[in-house]
Amino acid sequence: MNGTVEHYAGADQSAPATWFTRILRRLFIQRIDQLNWGCLHLEGAGLSEAVTLGQLRPDQIEVRVNVNNPLFFQYAAFGGSIGIAEAYMLGFWSTDDLVGLVRLFIRN
C-alpha cells in the first residue's frame, strides 16, 4: 500500500449530490455544529464555501475536513463512527489532522 489508502474500485469519487445526500449533509452539519470545544472546517461535497462548525478559542483544536464524495454523508448517517471510518478508507473524505479530528470528537 506504500503508506496511502487504496480506493475501492467501485467508489465513484465524482458522484453528484442527490436530494437525499443533501438532506443528510444538512443534518450532519446541524449535528456537528453543536461542538462545545474546538472548531471544524468542512469543505467540498457541493458546499459553495467552507462551513465552520464550533467556535475556535485559545488552546483548542482547529481541524479541516474535505469531503471528496457526497456518499460520505450516507456512511456517516447510517454507519456512525464505523461508517465514517469506512468512508475514510474509501477516500470519501480527508483531513489535514486525523489525530486532531479524533481528539476533537473525544472532547465533545
Structure description:
This protein is an alpha+beta fold and 108 residues long. It has helices at residues 19-32, 71-89, 98-107; strands at 38-44, 51-55, 62-67, 93-95. The protein has a four-stranded mixed sheet. Strand 1 and strand 2 (51-55) form a beta hairpin. Helix 1 packs across helix 2 (71-89). Mean pLDDT is 84; it is low at 1-11.
Number of strands: 4
Oligomer: single chain
- Name the poorly predicted regions: 1-11
- Could you estimate the helical fraction of the residues in percent? 25-40%
Topology order in helix (H) and strand (E) letters: HEEEHEH
Strand order of the largest sheet: 2-1-3-4
> With helices defined by DSSP (H or I, 4 residues minimum), what is the helix count?
3
How far apart the termini lie comes to 33 Å
Largest sheet: 4 strands, mixed
Shape, please?
globular
**Alpha-carbon Rg, integer:** 14 Å
What descriptors fit this protein?
single chain, 108 residues, alpha+beta, 4 strands
Question: Can I get a quick summary?
Answer:
The protein is built from 3 helices and 4 strands, in the order αβββαβα. The chain has helices spanning 19-32, 71-89, 98-107, and strands at residues 38-44, 51-55, 62-67, 93-95. Helix 1 (19-32) crosses helix 2 (71-89).
Provide the fold topology.
Layout lengths: L18 H14 L5 E7 L6 E5 L6 E6 L3 H19 L3 E3 L2 H10 L1
Helix pairs in contact: 1-2
